[in-house]
Design goal:
The complex is a heterodimer of chains A (155) and B (303).
Chain A: H1 5-21, E1 27-31, E2 34-42, E3 48-56, E4 61-69, H2 78-84, H3 93-96, E5 97-101, E6 108-112, H4 117-121, H5 129-142
Chain B: H1 7-15, E1 18-25, H2 27-30, E2 42-47, H3 56-67, E3 84-87, E4 90-91, H4 98-109, E5 118-123, H5 138-157, H6 160-164, H7 167-178, H8 182-192, E6 207-211, E7 224-225, E8 230-231, H9 234-251, E9 265-268, H10 280-286, E10 294-300
Parallel strand pairs in B: 1-5, 6-10
Antiparallel strand pairs in B: 1-2, 3-4, 3-5, 7-8, 9-10
Helix pairs in contact in B: 7-8
Classes of the chains: A alpha+beta (155), B alpha+beta (303).
Chain lengths: 155, 303
Amino acid sequence: MAFTLDEFYKCISDLYDQSKKIHDRWQLIETSKGSYLIYSFIDNNCLKYEFHIVYSESYSVPVLYFNISNLDGSLLSLDDVWKLFMHKKTSNMYETITQQEHPILHRPFFILHPCHTESLLRKVVDQPTKKRFIFWLSIYGQSVGLPLSVNYAID
Amino acid sequence: MTSLLDDKEITRELWQSHLPVCFILADEDKNKMSRSESPEPLYLMLARHSYFPCFIEKIHRYYCNYFKNDPNDTTNNMNLANLWLEYESIPLKWHYPIGVLYDLYVSSLSSISSHVPWQIIVHLSKFPEGEIIRFPDKESIEAHFMSTIKEADALKHRGQIIEDMQKRDHQQLWNSLLQDRYDGFWKINNKLMTYTDNLQYFRYIPFRIHILDKPFIHKLFSPFNVEEEKWTTLNDLLQFTLNHEAHCEQIANEKKIFNTNINDYRVIIHGIQPSLQSPVQWLSEHFSYPDNFLHICLIEKRT
């Protein structure tokens, strides 16, 4: 169910290749601390979104990090982010999103907590790795405003 | 692993370990004071295993006394969310336990021989949001602590133990830490120190290596070498991690090559220099911070 580091790298480099083909905006960043994907855009309300897909060795799963900033560069607070996506009041904010140190950049980023990722991925356990990756990304990304073209789900 | 009954006393000693801290208001915030006299420093005795964000309210309330007479104070300068701490021009990454920050920064930077009380500058404006995490309330630091403990359990037991716990057990871990109740904490924490998957040790050791001016280092590392049938030591862990780090830097063609000679560092956990021959399994069970991570500070020796 989990992803090995090599499987993760294969998934993000495939996604990156496909993104180039369909002229999408994913970027692949390679550093001595590991590789990750970035997707950023500015919405109609002049908010800048930045999403990072980073591998977690501890959980052996991909993790979605993000920040949302105003045009002056100031970051949205967790309360602002929570309101933005109108999450149900009953769900616990802090069990879903917390601010953490980015494992490669070591700056504060919001993180969709990965502790339930593995149980989510169990639902698609018999699917190939790439399918499982897109499945995860579409569900996690959708909850915080990451647009994902349907093209990625097509072989 | 056989361990003496007395070893439990070590965890109690570490739990009781405190640091005297002296909080001083930053000059630029003093200028905004309505009163003419400067605020006296605030002295607090803080547990090494605790977190600065737990005391933001207390520090904030203290300085509020000096501001409250200003009728024109409509700015958000006194907003609690803007409070942050600095030592030697470095914003303190206060999502790490207080003892870790002290061991890392004071041992690395202090030029004087007496380090206590630890003098920390309090800022009430210009929060460096690109560098440190915001903790606007107690719930946010609790959430951070719990997510770190969950990560530790993912490494030790694939997260099986923390998942099987009741929510009230999670709360007891945090509340015991806040209220300084050792027995309450260890009643639950003992469960996190057991073994799963038919092993006699943890799958991987949750640890972080802290070096000044470098991002923390974390790798997957097993406490038992199955091929050689022996326990791995702190020395093994450090050598493995430093070599790996240097190797990655080499591949990335970064010019600054990492110093992999362990003898060039002082190795500090909880303010103590443990023997490098200590088995990491034993260290993980006795020398981890309450977040279940071994926070190892490497201080480069001055030549």
